[in-house]
Design goal:
Elements: E1 2-6, H1 10-22, E2 27-31, H2 35-43, E3 49-50, E4 61-64, H3 68-81, E5 87-90, H4 96-102, E6 111-116, E7 137-141, H5 148-160, E8 164-168, H6 170-198, H7 202-208, H8 211-217, H9 224-233, H10 235-257, H11 261-271, H12 274-281
Parallel strand pairs: 1-2, 1-4, 2-3, 4-5, 5-6, 7-8
Antiparallel strand pairs: 6-7
Helix pairs in contact: 3-4, 6-10
């Protein structure tokens, strides 16, 4: 197999590493607008060869792992260049807009809209790690619009690298992911911003930050280049989740002002159910 990875950062690079392990004979080619990333990916063994769009006619599978705004232009171009039996799969965090952009493309059947629910707060080729996708969920949208043989090809790869598969329409995907992923990142960014604005002394933040703060603010280290387009593309759903979240924060604030700590206790107790939900997922 000739696997082309467009975007050699955390997700694309981690997929490249896992595919190398599961398919030792596969050749991994990297395409990246950032030449330093491309050089680093080659040096680290994330990819075997640097490549260009002109070579995509040799691809068995193309994995597009770039910011969601850029992929709106890149994926149609990729589809124009690949052969009829090539699978093109994206890994973006929003699905409705890219599916809409591609709905009338002559090679829509070559495209699989996928979203692996995995990652870390780090970026770039050095962030790529083996086993990132083991036990994680991959959501596939509009699977019926992908050629059956290419569906099979995608499923084989995704399952081999350890992923569970779920199917969803693109609109539902974007709505649900706004709550379970996008809101988490906004909360983390704004918590970090609040602390930075209040605690002017960076040494104080370092010395006093406990594990709770560190784990909650971890996502604030994520790439703004990646997340700003996600929030833009999923704007309506993100606003809806923020309104609900802000209402809950305002209610919590009011209960504190009213010294109603028995109600605060009950709300936290009720929310402890999230442990069972997440343990059930695992």
């Amino acid at each position: 197999m000739n696997i082309f990875i467009i975007g050699t950062g955390l997700i694309g690079g981690s997929m490249a590493l896992d595919i190398q392990e599961k398919y030792p004979k596969a050749k991994i080619f990297g395409i990246d607008s950032n030449q330093e990333h491309l050089d680093e990916a080659l040096k680290l063994g994330v990819i075997h060869h640097k490549s260009t769009f002109e070579a995509l006619d040799k691809a068995s599978i193309v994995i597009v792992s770039i910011p969601v705004d850029v992929q709106l232009e890149v994926i149609p171009k990729v589809l124009d260049l690949v052969n009829d039996d090539t699978l093109v799969m994206d890994v973006g965090s929003t699905k409705e807009l890219i599916c809409d952009v591609l709905k009338n493309h002559p090679k829509r059947r070559n495209f699989l809209a996928a979203h692996p629910i995995a990652g870390t707060e780090f970026s770039g080729p050095a962030a790529a790690i083996k086993g990132l996708f083991e036990g994680k969920t991959n959501i596939i949208c509009e699977v019926e619009k992908t050629a059956f043989k290419l569906q099979e090809k995608a499923l084989e790869v995704l399952i081999k690298i350890g992923m569970r598969i779920r199917y969803m329409d693109s609109k539902s995907h974007d709505k649900h992911i706004a709550y379970v992923s996008h809101l988490s990142h906004i909360s983390s960014f704004m918590l970090g911003k609040t602390v930075i604005e209040k605690e002017k002394n960076e040494r104080d933040i370092f010395d006093m930050a406990g594990s709770g703060f560190e784990s909650t603010v971890r996502l604030a280290k994520s790439s703004p280049e990646m997340w700003t387009p996600i929030f833009e593309q999923n704007k309506e759903n993100v606003i809806e989740t923020l309104e609900k979240y802000i209402n809950n924060l305002e209610e919590f604030k009011t209960l504190i002002q009213q010294n109603n700590f028995s109600e605060i206790y009950q709300k936290m107790k009720d929310t402890n159910r999230i442990k069972q939900i997440l343990n059930g997922i695992k």
